[in-house]
Here is the input.
Amino acid sequence: MSALLELQDVTKVFGGGFLDTRGVTVAVDRVTLTIEEDIPRIITIAGESGSGKTTLARLLLGSIEPTSGTMLYRGKDFSGLSRRERREFRREVQPIFQDPFESYNPFYKVDHVLHSPIKNFKLVSSRDERDRLVEEALLMVGLQPDETLGRFPHQLSGGQRQRIMVARALMLKPRVILADEPVSMVDASLRATILESIQDMKRELGISVLYITHDLTTAFQISDEILIMYRGNVVEYGDVTKVIPNPQHAYTRMLIDSIPQANPGKRWGKLLEATGTEMVGTGEETEQFGIRPQATRHYDEVEPDHFVMISENDAGSPGEEELVSAATDQGPSS
Amino acid sequence: MTLEVTNEASSTRPDLSNRDFALDIQDFKVYYDTPRGIVKAVDGVSLAIRQGERFALVGESGSGKSTLAMAVMRLTRPPGRIAGGNVLLHGTDLVSISEEEMRQTRLADIALVPQGAMNSLNPVMKISNQVIDGIIDHIPEDAPKPDADELENRVNELLVRVGLAPMVGQLYPHELSGGMKQRVAMAIAISLSPRVIIADEPTSALDVIVQRQIMQTLGQLQEGLDAAVLLVGHDMGLVAQFADTVGVMYAGKLVEIAPVETIFSNPLHAYPQLLIESIPTMDERKPLTGIPGLQPSLLNLPEGDVFAPRSPIPHTPEDAATVPKLVEVEPGHWVQLSRSSVADFNTYAHLVDY
Here is the structure.
């Protein structure tokens, strides 16, 4: 069993430069994560905006470098990769974004979106080969090539466009797909289609998927593992079927309890006051859940494949143990 | 910080039966004139909201729900136009009053919490001035102008009511998070204590925790003002959490209206049924389903039951071609009755003449 991608204690700090008066932000705080080569998995990275999940995604794509810690690609330190190895990495780890056509030139036909990676990675040696590759990829995501090629982005539905982006990624025969919020702001039908294609990648093509989202419901439905991030820290992680029904960290519990359940008999509890992240700008940013950057912490294995972060605070502030046990005392969430 | 999150299993639906209609929308039509023909975005919608009621209008994108909300505020822009019907706000028809009367009515009597508050605030103006703007604009010509202290107090009070510190008034929009901007938008909306509030997807693009805070704050404000709220959205979860009554829109028409408990426990029309079945839950893992097929183009809608092509209920071409009526099948529960989209049609067949 070998690791394709491995993060060891990776930290990313922004700011704090010579002329920076706003201080540093620890966006990702000592995160460890392994993506195996042989066993495809769907791994969810969940958290609110500002939790560091998108920074983690950028680290995994190699678009930013960690401040400290190690990132290994096929066992080799990422910073020591040769040009060739880097190219191979960029082919094997593919991102899919929400609606990439928003940032795409609307005057280019769909074909251009599909041809450019083929050209960049020199995947084929002839036009025929290229066309065959494109058609295969489109069929794989359930699109008819003759109904898709030669069209402009605006002539296609949101679902079709999303599937073209999946096809584009699949053409490169990646080992890992990184899907950043692929289903926020789409309606039920499209959401189901996209999530199904993510599951197909794992089941039929053996590709691992990193699913980055704030939607715990869909995470619970499709993923194998989950990492809950809060202020750069992974506060809880493990098998999704263990973490979601039995959350241990106070933050995870709050996240789960805030999900609007489609059941008028199970309404939210009492009014949730503004949290620290909400009060940004008011100078009242407080410590939430006892989490401070780069504090001493460890992980407890509460059951097999289910870990919760315990921060070891010095006296004065509420310790994580208290919060965790207080949360546990309330019994399982409904 | 509130950590207590016990779910009150509640039937919190207020008894509204004896109250007057705050907003009564009758056979409302909003059309867009395009080079390829008329797009009937809202086509003959009727619904009524009582004072103090929370009414949620749901549907897929393109169903016409936001178009309807904007048209009620008379904020439709060309090529869109109100093509017919009435919107009675406490008896006054908003469709027929002058532009100036409508301007005075907005904010004072009917206010909008817009979709994506980040884009509705002026980026180069302090928050407090943006809140004051609306207040000053609605002071009658002959009334004395309030002094600066009075206005400042008013703004501070409004900010506190939406859960913001008064000092937020001294900040600019870019200094605020998305949730805070949405709170500012709510402060503006309630600045003149309107009796009707329209909230158009007020929490899209916000995280779940912030979303919960915003929706709960909106609920509190609604109760404080005893306002009628028209919530427009596509998230059935939010609707279940917030609404008293739900109207489901499909391709410009309402297909079902019912109390929130009924729409989730006993939807009769196939579209809401499928919509509810497709919601992923936290209770069990099961294959995700969507609704097969696509919403028809509003340019050339099929005659008759527009949902028929996607309906799983076996039907004949004649069933699908019959123009269905929205009928009250039990008190407060209205269904667009068609043989092609209502499995229980025969139970209610006596209510219609087809």
